[in-house]
Amino acid sequence: MNSRLQYVELNDGRFIPGLGFGTYKPPEVPNSKTTEATKIAIEAGYRHIDCAYAYQVEEEVGLAVRSKIADGTVKREDIFCTSKLWCTFHRPELVQSSLERSLKKFHFDYVDLYLIHYPFSMKVNENGKTIYDHVDLCAVWEAMEKCKDAGLAKSIGVSNFNRRQLEMILNKPGLKYKPVCNQVECHVYHNQRKLLDFCKSKNIVLVAYGALGTQRDKQWVDQSSPVLLDDPVLGALAKKHKRSPALIALRYQLQRGVVVLAQSLKENEIKENIQVERRAVGMWVLYMLLLSSYPGTFLSPPPQKKEIKEYPWKLLNHLTYFKMLPIAFSESFKYMTL
């Protein structure tokens, strides 16, 4: 365990680094950039690498990790690697094979954390179109538990779940393992205070993505929405403390007990962001950020439809401070099927 890093204990007794390196990238960016950025991140000291089947870069992330193992920078056990189960593989008989497929791309024997990426399910119909499916979340979770028992995932958790969906898993008869975490969009404009309090009460770690305002991918983010790192309060605090707005935004999460993911493909930003581990800020700074929080999110969810039984955002207080993009969600993910 790297003594320079802040670690958070999970409810299964394992530890997760408080700062993670996010590997999502916009589709127009070459996959090779992910390999380069992940190598830089590991060299800079990141030990928590967040990935997913849907990002389509598991192979590139695995290549970066293996190259840093080969040159002696790290050992496999030093790296905490996360991947996620995509919505088209929720049927219990598909869960383990989906994880095994990801492991083959990584060239790993296991992932440190495997998450259900979204609580709703999808499938490909007879016309080859991706549509919504109805799969019992508790059955999906039981399949996840089997992945842990098989040693393919050291820890298991969820992503983009609301309180009701978490309670559904927690109250499931015969529950073997609780979710260790819930990864959600969380930043100074959308601080998830109620969900964080609930997760803490159940000993579930909240993991924040989009903490720096996302990479503003046109597929997901309204380009007219405010740029989080240009926020005047954030800028004033950064200037006063001689730090970047990004460091203040990341530290805000760590000091709330939130595990936070930092995304960047730029070497200088990757190296700067890890400085958050060594630079605390006063509680009044956090209070100022809470006061300045706008009720808004950056990522546009798919339109709510009656057939989406487990649509998660209706209980997340997903307010529309920022204009939502009209996204044909199922069409966007055609390539993410078998």
TrEMBL record:
Query: NADP-dependent oxidoreductase domain location, by residue?
Result: 19-276
PROSITE patterns listed in its UniProt record: ALDOKETO_REDUCTASE_1, ALDOKETO_REDUCTASE_2
Matching entries from Pfam families are given as: Aldo_ket_red
User: Which residues are listed as membrane-spanning?
Assistant: none
- Tell me the InterPro entries matching this sequence: AKR, AKR1C, Aldo/ket_reductase_CS, NAD(P)_OxRdtase_dom_sf, NADP_OxRdtase_dom
* Claim: ATP-binding is one of the keywords in the record: no
Positions that bind substrate: H117
- Site, Lowers pKa of active site Tyr: residue positions: K84
Molecular function GO labels: oxidoreductase activity
* Alphabetically ordered keywords of this record: NADP, Oxidoreductase
* Catalytic residues as annotated in Swiss-Prot or TrEMBL: Y55 (proton donor)
What the record says about family reads: Belongs to the aldo/keto reductase family.
Q: Which PANTHER family match?
A: ALDO/KETO REDUCTASE
Q: What is this protein called?
A: NADP-dependent oxidoreductase domain-containing protein
Tell me which species this is from. Answer: Spermophilus dauricus
The lineage, from the top, is:
Eukaryota, Metazoa, Chordata, Craniata, Vertebrata
